[in-house]
Amino acid sequence: MEHEAESIANAVVPYFPDDHRKSKYLSFRTTGFPFREACKLAQISISTVRNWRASDEEFAKLDLTGISDLKSQLGMKYLDIEFTRNMRLALQKDLTVLMKSITKSDSLTQQEQQYLLKIRQFYTPQQLILIQELAKGGSEDGHFDFTKLVFEIRREREQISIRGAVGEE
Question: Partner of 66 for a Cys bridge, out of 48, 62, 84, 111, CB 3.0 to 4.6 A?
Fold first, then answer.
C-alpha cells in the first residue's frame, strides 16, 4: 500500500529534469512526511533543500506553499484509484452471482439468492447514468463532485420509496 501511495505521489509531483531528487523529496512531503524526514528519506541534506529553495522559484513555491495543493491532488487521485478498484471487485462479485443464477439457478445458496435480490435494484437505467457520470468525472469540467453524486443517489432512493409507497396503497 505504501508503494502505491508513493507511485501516485510521483505522478502528482512535477518532475524536475535538472535534479530528480527534488521530485523525490516533494513526493515524500506530499505523502505527509515532515521536512526533516522527507530529507532523510530522499537522501538529501537540509542545506540542499534550502539551496534549491533559493535557486529554484518553482521548487520553493511547491515546497513552501504548494504542498497542501499537492496533498489534495494526491488524496483525490488515491480515492479515485481505491474506489475504482473496489468497484471492480464488487462488479466481479455481481457477475459471478448473476452468471450462476443463469447457468446453475437451482444451485444458488440462500445467501446468493438474497445477494441477487439486493443487487437487482442497482441495475437500472438511472444507476447506469450515475455510474457513467462517475466514470467521466461527474461534471462538465471533468472533476468528480461527490456531493452531487450523494444528492443524486438520495433523490433516486426517495423516488423509489415514493413509487413503492404509492404502489402499496
Answer: 62
